[in-house]
């Protein structure tokens, strides 16, 4: 089993296969499953992601009314105006936020790697898809590549906001997405690693400070940040830009920063945005209503 | 390695809003349900750190109860679990516990009915993945990556051999095994992780083995 990104890239280069193929072969071996079984399982996940985005673009609203509807607003803006950040980037943002709006509304989603960060991977996939026209198999490979990088983070650092802050959730998710975009766009395994490192570097230190402890504010909009950064880093890597700090060392830094974060900034809903006048007011109002 | 599958990262499919606070919590509840063998009539839920601070907002409350009712993470009844539990007369108490724990997402479940009770500690480590760290006062380490059999037995010689010989006869391979006891000659717990799911026939045969009190199976 590969333990680090370096090992993952080395296996891919040595065997002249893609990152997704390394992940697929390892999963087949460890879980004693056939390639067909893995595709079948991944296809189910892909369908859940697709359905969540479809629902979001119809418009959803959470029980509290705090989130929902922004994905629709952005789609409308893309179609009616000329977005400064470009239609593909904004489409990814809309679909990433939309997935998390569905999550906040207690709809069905696929955790990638977690529910709070579930927008980045599918959001970018279903936006990039329109330009790269992948086959269904390539779309599944996108998820295996994202999974391979997430696998290293989960085993060497953390993918839990309670343990490592939002950098561990949306940071990991956005970085996983950038690595997957690079592979789908025809980049090398090493370029995937560079893209992953560059996204995660920009997410280091991000705290987990949900208002009223709800996976709504700021989680939905953090997925907008994660998904847009994913696309920018992927483009940077494809342009030949590299990270001065190797990918595994960035993951190590993320882990140590998470350990140094006080508990008030690790998914307790006590610090950061949760501890602003409006954050506290919302908490009193919402939890007063529901309890 | 804590995670050994790509589907720990891309997955699970679940009802929102939080993989650690809802999906993970539901899985801990479900594990308690499986270990108890049925839905309990009373439950005391001790929540720690992040779980204690945010359980209402994150839906940890209904997820734990949904799991205790036997629901899976993608069961659409999940968000109505508290209501369903009330209809079924399940007595539920949530306790925000301030004791120190090793992981911020920790819960202690004390559950039971007229005949029996059970206590376990579960930790939601991220992305919906969980660990059961304590059962009825016994410390244990279940990776959750493989099916496992938990066997409460009396601490006598021959107890372990009687179990392993049944498994050997049915060609069930043991991947990991731990034995713990409270004191010499007292109640003990065997934790056996196996490579494949174990048929109910084999469990019934194990129940008849010497010095065995109770057996439960957990599928990964």
UniProtKB/TrEMBL annotation, chain A:
UniProt cross-references to InterPro entries, sorted A to Z: Fe-S_L-Ser (IPR051318), Ser_deHydtase-like_asu (IPR005130), Ser_deHydtase_asu (IPR004642)
Catalytic activity, EC: 4.3.1.17
Keyword Iron-sulfur among record annotations: yes
Biochemical pathway: Carbohydrate biosynthesis; gluconeogenesis
Taxonomy, superkingdom: Bacteria
Residue ranges of every copy of the Serine dehydratase-like alpha subunit domain listed in the record: 15-274
Entry cofactors: [4Fe-4S] cluster
Top-level class of the enzyme under EC nomenclature: lyase
Catalytic activities: L-serine = pyruvate + NH4(+)
Coiled-coil regions, chain positions: 25-59
Entry keyword set: 4Fe-4S, Coiled coil, Gluconeogenesis, Iron, Iron-sulfur, Lyase, Metal-binding
Family of the protein in this entry: Belongs to the iron-sulfur dependent L-serine dehydratase family.
Stated name of the protein: L-serine dehydratase
Originating species: Virgibacillus dokdonensis
From TrEMBL, chain B:
Domain of life: Bacteria
Keywords: 4Fe-4S, Gluconeogenesis, Iron, Iron-sulfur, Lyase, Metal-binding
ACT domain mapped to chain residues: 148-220
Pathway info: Carbohydrate biosynthesis; gluconeogenesis
Catalysed transformations (reactions): L-serine = pyruvate + NH4(+)
InterPro entries in the cross-refs: ACT-like_dom_sf, ACT_dom, ASB_dom_sf, Fe-S_L-Ser, Fe-S_L-Ser_bsu, Ser_deHydtase_bsu
Coiled-coil annotated spans: none
Cofactor: [4Fe-4S] cluster
PROSITE patterns given in the database record: ACT
UniProt keyword annotation of Translocase present: no
Transmembrane spans: none
MF terms (GO), sorted A to Z: L-serine ammonia-lyase activity
Family, similarity comment: Belongs to the iron-sulfur dependent L-serine dehydratase family.
NCBIfam families found in the cross-reference section: sda_beta
Name under which the protein is recorded: L-serine deaminase
Classification lineage: Bacteria, Bacillati, Bacillota, Bacilli, Bacillales
